[in-house]
Structure formats: structure tokens, C-alpha cells
Amino acid sequence: MQTSSKQNVLVLDFGSQTTQLIARRVREAQVYCEIHPFNISIQRIKAMAPKGIILSGGPSSVYDEDAPKIGTEIFDLGIPILGICYGMQLTSLLLGGQVERSDHREYGHARLIIDDTDEIFHGLLAGEPGHQVWMSHGDKVEKIPEGFIVLAHSASCPVAAMAHAEKSIFGVQFHPEVAHTEIGMDVIRNFLFRVCKCTPDWTMESFVSTTVEEIKRKVGNGRVICALSGGVDSTVTALLIHKAIGKNLVCVFVNNGLLRKNEPETVLAFLKQFDLNVVYVDAEERFLQKLKGVEDPEKKRKIIGNEFIEIFEEEASKTGHVDFLAQGTLYPDVIESVSFKGPSATIKSHHNVGGLPDVMKLDLIEPLRELFKDEVRRVAKELGMPYELINRHPFPGPGLAIRILGEVTHERLNILREADHIVLEEMKASDWYWKVWQSFAVLLPIKTVGVMGDERTYDHVVALRVVDSLDAMTADWSKLPYDLLGRISNRIINEVRGVNRVCYDISSKPPATIEWE
User: Fold this and answer.
1) Which of 273, 299, 454, 466 has its CB 3.0 to 4.6 Å from that of 439, i.e. a possible disulfide?
2) pLDDT tens figures, 361-389
3) Please, which residues bridge with residue 502 across strands?
């Protein structure tokens, strides 16, 4: 799909853990934004014709031997540039400034004293007492390049912001994208609207109308087969395509045997309310046979992805000529599957992205590829979908297979389904389901000793994973009430045969991921 907005702000990723937050903040200002690796070619940048470029932070020193670098020609394109942290240091170094190691690494809260309120600090208070910002750097700009001026400083950073007003090149040593920087959105908005002259036209209403027209143009009189799971992503995908081409869309709901308890029946009942052409395929035994003996999570994902595609191609042949396969791929899937250092450093493959076979008979159509999860939910609301479905917790494409660590079997699936069902029941009964991003159970590949009645047991361990997040790119473990955790644990141990221990995962992302595999 092409971007759904004529204007575009480009974020070049130098490896920062908060790069995706930059894009989120830009989109919150209703300006479309994309993340690309730092080594994107100048030709591609010119072809994209961005209204502005943001250089992200990163973990490297500009003097590291393998530090990510860009050419100086980017500064001659006449496109406004904002360098953040490493992006500012690199800008200074490339344009003739001086960057040195700080006496001590500055990490955490700092007071920013603004010296010049033009452009990116427009409307903000200059001088003392300053503004709270978030610093995270080991190097600092000691001498600014020729033609630049200092815009702000802090107690330990004489150049906390700089600018070349004539060329519209800016740098900030702090992180405006994080919540700890109280003036962060002011800085970002000033860069977008005062410097780049952007228009806030990235709305979900405009996305729907533009995307429907793009689908019409791309598909024409062709036919589309859509992978429909009943979740918000695939349902929104189907409704957008149906809005564009009507009955030329065939939706295929595959029961791969890796779904939650009663999910096939629930999904089919729900989909009846929409005027969609849905084909049901029961492929449980087919998937489990392919997964027999497989323990490696990446192999599981590849097997499941390949099997899905084969089924869709088979169904396409049964329904006559089909040209396209539709998927509910989201932007975080794309970002996590294309690292800033290239495919070798990706976090994981995704069944909607990295799990596809090299050769596929159907062309892909992914109308949600440029959206974060919360944006998809706003599209769903725009399309009139009910609250319960819009706010349903994300469920991974490979299903319960990546929530069972080790081999996937009928027995282990039944244990996890029952445990997961209890988790969802208790989360909804307590209203906590609607307060968190995601909640689910994970079956671990270990057994532990327990005592039930007067008997010794040696049974499975279930881990409970509940996280708070805005877009799944970062997440923190949810601080659930102890009594709720106790009820979930007691019910799982008492009601699910084969489980004698429940643990609560208190890891954040990063460094952990939300899913265990």
C-alpha cells in the first residue's frame, strides 16, 4: 500500500529503544510518519519527498568504529532536520563541530534552560527555573558547527540544543519523545508545524477514505482472499477491503487448532452480523502434524506461516481465480521484522512478515501496514465495530503455539486453553481486562514438585503475563491487585488438571518481549 497521506515525516533509526516513540508522537500530532534504517539511500529519501527528517538517538558513540553514520549530502537536501541525542551529536560531527566524551554519563531527569525561544522552543519559557527533560548520553557537543547557535543548556551540558536557522537544521541532546520530558510535544509540534510547515491531516477518517480508494485502484476487478481470525486487525482489514470491492472479497477463517477455548464458535457467530463471504476451514490436525516434535520458536512461526499460505492458496483455487492475499499486518510487525542494522539483527520474524514463503502465488495486500495498534482501533470505531471487539486483547498470528514453550501437543494445548480461559474470565470479571494492553497464560516446558491433599505431585508450571502498553513497541508489567492474582492462581491450580504452580512475569519490554516466543 502507498502511504495514506501526501505529506510524510521520515525518522531515520540509529538503534534507539525509543525510535518508535518518536513516530508515535509525530502521529499524535496528526502528521504521518515512517521509520526507516539510517542507511536508507539519498535517492529513496528524495523519492519520498518528506516534509521533515528526524535523526533518532542510539546506543553508540559517534567515535565507535562501527557507529552508524550517514553522508553529509542529507543536510543539503533543503529538508528540515531534527537530530535527537545521537542524531544531534552526529549532525555536529559531520558538519564540522566537536563532540567529546562527557565527564560523566548523563542519564535521567535534568533541567533544561532555554536561551532562544525561536522555532522549536517557540512559546516556551526561557531562563530559570527551566524545564524538566530526559537525558541519556555519554558524549556531548563541545563545539557547535559553523553557522549554528546554541538554543539551550543544562547544568552539565553546555549545548543541550542547537540550530542552523538558515538551513532549518536542529539538534536536541534530550529526548522529546519520552513522557519524562514535559515540553516534549511542544518541541515536536514546533518542529512539525513552524519549521516543516506540516498540516495535521493524518486522521483515521481520512485514512479510511484514502485506503478504500487505494484498494479499489490496486485490486480493480480482481478478487481478494483474506485471512480472517475474528480479531480487530483482520476484521478491520476485511471490512476495509469489503468496503472497496464488495463480494469480490472471500474471507477464510482457519481453525489451526492453536486458538483459545471456544474461539472458532465465537468468531463464526460474531462474523454473521457482517455481510462478509466467510469460508471455514478446520485444519487442526494438519497444523499439529506439521508441528510435531518442533520446539524452536522461529521454526514454529515459519511452519505456521507457510501452512497458512498453502491453505489460502488451496481455498483460492477452489473459489475460482483470486489475485490477492489480504493480511492484517501492522506497523510494529514491520518495524520489528526490519532492524536498523538489517535482517540479521531482527528481534523476531512475524508470521505476517518474516514467516512468508519466498515464493507465493498470490500478491499481498496489507491495508493496515502503516498503522500502530491504537490507530487500528480508531479505524475500527470509524467503521462502527462494537467496543468489545475493538478493545479485545491482541492475539498472535501463530496463536497458542508460541505460548507453549517447547513442543505443541493436544495435551499441552488443552492445559493452556483451560488456564488461559480462567485468566480472561477473571480479568473481565474484575474489569482489569479493559485497563491493560494484554493478558494471557504461558505454559512452560518444566514441571515442579507440589502437594495436593496428601499426595506429592510433579506437574506443569503456568506463567501469567499481563502488560500495559500503548502500541506493543514498549510495555511494562501490570501491577494487578494481589487478590486478583491469588484468584487466578487458585483457580488454575484447582481447576486445570496437570498444573501445580503459577508464576507472574514482571519483565518489561525492553529488554523482554511481550510474548515469550
Assistant:
1) 466
2) 678 899 998 888 889 999 999 998 888 88
3) 462
